[in-house]
Design goal:
324 residues, alpha/beta, DHBP synthase, Rossmann fold, 2 domains, 11 helices
């Protein structure tokens, strides 16, 4: 199969209507999309990514009103959060209607719904009479793509079309939240909307989920090992990691500190101005670039545990897990 990168929304729309999988841009990362109401189309996502069927997908619509067509009930607090953060990098885990196949939710009675904040994909969704299931557009377990070129590197020959929307502006996947019977907000995955911002809206602390069985995730992004480069990665105190994993071919990932006193071959300083939003946007691209350098090891510092730093640390932890 020949894979093409382009900006033709009508062509992407036609392919999706025919039941094909198409890579689409969002503000978070690029997604591999197919008709969420068509199991035969959805299976092509799993096949192209080599993604296990037990891992649920996120369903994307063009508006909150449209999203309500696929859920049975919505807590009042969800409406409040959607009014502020949708379109945007916030996903809502809600009871699903039968028009969403079990394949999309891995058999769960809950569906993850999101309205992406990207003009091209919003325009595409408005032309379709069905929502799009879309995990990240890369081989399962590898670093999520933040450009159309990244998608091509992972999925060339496996899909026919990549809709190019430029470099993503957030760079990390969406935050996923659910709700309990008392309408407490439960965070299932940290991401593009910060915990602090959610707590400002709801006026109380969120609850954090704990995945007890990583082979049965409740929603996307809960696997212990994920977002991993091909190069071994370790996070922690840089001087200790440098001494422990010392190599002439070491790559460093840090927020702003350069560690010039250490003999490190390649330094990736994600934000000299200590801007966690900028660092989040650059993280996945840096990991991909490091893989191309064919270094022996990546050492990464822990980022400030606040704002998007929480999500950055989460992604680095999951990337490290495969090498522990």
């Amino acid at each position: 199969m020949r894979t093409i990168i382009g900006t033709n929304i009508e062509l992407a729309c036609e392919l999706l209507i025919r039941g094909e999988a198409v890579a689409i841009p969002t503000e978070t990362v690029y997604g591999l999309a197919a008709n969420a109401c068509n199991p035969d189309a959805v299976i092509k996502i799993f096949e192209a990514k080599n993604r296990p069927h037990f891992n649920p997908l996120i369903v994307h619509t063009h508006s909150w009103e449209s999203a309500l067509n696929y859920t049975l009930e919505v807590p009042e607090i969800a409406h409040r959060l959607a009014a502020i953060f949708s379109p945007g990098p916030l996903t809502f885990l809600l009871p699903k209607k039968n028009n969403i196949p079990d394949l999309v939710t891995a058999g769960s009675d809950l569906v993850a719904l999101r309205i992406p904040n990207h003009p091209i994909t919003l325009a595409l969704l408005k032309q379709l009479d069905f929502p799009l299931a879309a995990p990240s557009a890369n081989q399962f377990g590898y670093i999520s793509p933040t450009t159309a070129a990244h998608v091509m590197q992972s999925l060339e020959g496996k899909i026919s079309y990549i809709l190019d929307g430029g470099t993503t502006t957030v760079g990390l996947e969406s935050t996923i939240i659910g709700f309990d019977e008392q309408e407490n907000v439960i965070v299932h995955r940290v991401g593009g909307v910060t915990i602090e911002d959610i707590e400002k809206v709801i006026g109380k602390k969120v609850l954090m989920t704990e995945t007890k069985d990583h082979n049965k995730p409740q929603t996307s992004g809960q696997l212990k090992s994920h977002y991993a480069p091909n190069t071994p990665l370790y996070i922690g105190d840089i001087e200790h990691l440098y001494a422990t994993h010392r190599s002439s071919k070491t790559a460093l990932i840090s927020l702003s500190e350069t560690y010039h006193e250490l003999d490190i071959a390649h330094r990736f300083i994600l934000s000299p101005n200590n801007d966690l939003n900028e660092a989040a946007q650059k993280l996945f691209a840096a990991l991909r670039q490091i893989d191309e350098l064919e270094v022996d090891v990546i050492i990464a510092e822990r980022f400030p545990n606040q704002g998007l730093g929480i999500a950055i640390n989460d992604r680095l932890k999951r990337a490290q897990a495969i090498y522990k």
